[in-house]
Amino acid sequence: MAIPGGVRTPQRPLLLLLGLIHIASSIFVVENSTGTSCIMANFSASFFMNYSTKSGVKNTTFDLPQDARVLNGSSSCGKENASNPILVIGFGKGHTLTMNFTRTTKSYQVQLLRFTFNLSDETVFQNASSSSEEMSVESKTDIQADIDKKYRCISSDRITMNNVTVTLSDVTIQAYLSQNNFSKEETRCSRDTPSPAPGPTTHPTTAPLPTPTRPPTPEIPSVSKYNVSGTNGTCLLASMGLQLNITYEKKDNTSVRRILNINPNKTAVNGSCSPQVAVLELNFENSTLIFRFGTNATTSKFFLQGIHLNTTLPDAKKPTFEAFNNSLKELQATVGNSYKCNAEENVQVTDSFSVNIFRVRVQAFKVEGDKFGSVEECLLDENNMLIPIAVGGALAGLVLIVLIAYLIGRKRSHAGYQTI
Length: 420
Hints:
It is a single chain. The longest helix has 37 residues, at 379-415. 30% of the residues are buried. 10% of the residues lie in helices and 46% in strands. Strand 17 and strand 18 form a beta hairpin. With 420 residues, the chain is mainly beta. It has two helices and 26 strands.
């Protein structure tokens, strides 16, 4: 168990009885000089990130290991009116995951999550081009709870920070502890959907279940413009309408397809920029949709590399729906130009999830003056243009044939009469 200095508090036997002591990487405790706990955290974490190698950009995925530990010298309970509590977890060869806490009179929160990684760790970053470089990424979080209550979230919480995505799962966190242990009361995250209270016992029926009806297809979604900027200016400019197609199993074991238009007026836009990755994050109706754009240094092309969706489906057998694909090659164009497609495009993310994109125009990495560059049309638009061109050509040819036939007929008519 990750306890600073290995000091045991009177509550540690209780943790043993609860069977938690064997999960070495799950429980992290920060104590003050008297041995009183001020922060307790119990969670698992996984990391997905891109990094540069001599042969190009490479992906890596790893979990918070069992031997992760609280770093005593960096963690702190804070001082009233001077500093705030901070939890610093160390693992691997120089990697740290840091949570900075703040509070108000009624609540506390993880105001900032920071991940520092060392590219010299060959076990994680093989053939990294900057093997001696230590880097940090950070992001605000929505981890928040009432004072004297623990924060509880069973659902996965994906936090995107530039080229890094940290996924926290089965989270229990509490800061500003008053009883030296987790409170019995809790604040649940919005992603968790409580199970409905059991109703009265009913007798099973032999009547067949009604055939589920497919919901009517929504209208074409509204087109909105999205802008993602970093320290060096805009790295992603996009204009598009978005429609989600989700297939899932309901609580009555029937399969249903849900079609959802994203309303720009009810969507919060976030994102991040790095030399190799541009991320657009859309938050709406307790859902998060992430677009990850990458670049190919060899071809000087940018493209839609990944799509992640995390949403809640109240009528589903598993209310938390998550789907992602980081191996896409969609919406490609030369860096410095913009990709444009007026036709509807369908991007299949997984077997159960796809995204319909309407009237899209997008440009990543090299955006000058917050304006789109030269257009590269999609193949669908080019094919659609062939039809009117072919029809127009056929009509022009038909008119030409009729005109020639008319002239020939007229000439023969005059040749039948001779002057006497």
